[in-house]
Amino acid sequence: MSYAAMRSIGAYVPKRILSNQDLAAMVDTSDEWIVKRTGIQERRIAAQDETTSDMGAKAAQIAIERSGVNKSDIDMLICATISPDYFNMPSTATLIATKLGLGQISAFDISAACTGFVYVLSIAKAFIESGMKKNILIIGAEKLSAITDYSDRTTCILFGDGAGAAMICATNDASEAIRDVNTGSDGTYADLLMTPNGGSGSIHDSPERDKVFMQMKGNETFKVAVRTLTADVQELLHKNGVQTAQIKHFVPHQANYRIIKAVGDALGLDEAQVVLTVGKYGNTSGASIPMAINDIYESGRLAKGDLLLLDAFGGGLTWGSALLPFAGK
Ligand code: UT7
What we know:
This protein is an alpha/beta fold.
C-alpha cells in the first residue's frame, strides 16, 4: 500500500499592505475595533494585474523546488479557490499548470471556500493511496480583494490576498503518512457566507448581477465556526487515538483571532502550539492554512516529523480537519 505524505510547503504574498488605518479612511471603522474584534492588523493586496493563478504559480514553484520532485513527475494539480481568474472557466488550476510548464497533466479547481485546502488534501490523499497518482501539487490561492466590497465595513476589514502550495507524494514509509482527513458540509447554512450574484442562482436582469462580492452574517458565522471547529477536531483526535499534547502545531484557518483562541482553549491547547498569521495576512480563505504552514517552515519552527493538526471552516458551510506529520526537509 502506498501512503500519501506532505513533502514540501511554499507560499507567496503580494507586496502591497492594506493597514487598518487605510481601511479607516475608506469606511466607518477604526484600528482599535478591528484589532479587538479580529486580531487583524494588516493584510496583503495583489496588484491590479496580478491574478490568483499568478500567485498560485509562485507559491507552487517554491513547493516544487523544496520537494525535490521533477516537474515531469508531477501528475496532478488541484487548486482550491473562490476567487478564480475567471468565472467559471478556464479553471485556475489549468492556468497554473501552464505557467509552471507542467505539460498536459490532470488539473482542476475545487470550491469549498475557507476549507478548500483541507478538501484538496483529502482528494490528493485518496488519489495517491489508490495508486492512481504519485505526485500531486495542491494549492490554495485567493485574490479576495477582487470579490470584496470595500464599502461594506463588516467584510472588507477581514480579507486579504495570497497563495500557498504543498507537494503531496507517494511513500512506502508509514511514519510519513497523512494520518486522517475529515471533511463535512451543511448547506442549510448556505446564506451565512455567500457571493449571491453572478451565478445561475441570481436573477438575469438584476442590476446587481455583476457585483460578485462576498456577503457574510458575521456574528452567526462566528458562533457556528467555534462549535463546528471544536467538535470536528475532537472527533478526528478521538478516532486516531491522539492527545492534544502530541500535536506540535495546530494550524487553524486564520479567520479571526477570537475564533482561534476559543477553539484552542476548548481543545486545551497551549498557546505555543497554535499557529497565528491572521494579524499580518487577515483571512485569505483557501490560502490561509498553507500560508500559515509556510510561515512556521520559513521561521525554522517546522521540522520533519512534527505532527500538524489542521482545522478549517468556511462558506457552504464547509469544514474539515487533518492530522499529518510534516514529511519535508
Ligand atoms: O472565513 C470564513 C469564516 N468566517 C468567519 O469565521 C468570520 C466570523 N465572524 C467574525 O469574525 C466576526 O463576527 C466579525 C469580525 C465579522 C464581526 O465581529 P462581531 O463581534 O461578531 O461583531 P457584530 O457583527 O456583532 O457587530 C457588533 C457591532 C455592530 O454595531 P451595533 O449594531 O452593535 O451598533 C456592527 O455594526 O460592530 C459594528 N461593526 C463595526 N464597527 C466598526 C461591524 N463591523 C464593524 C467595523 N468597524 N468594521
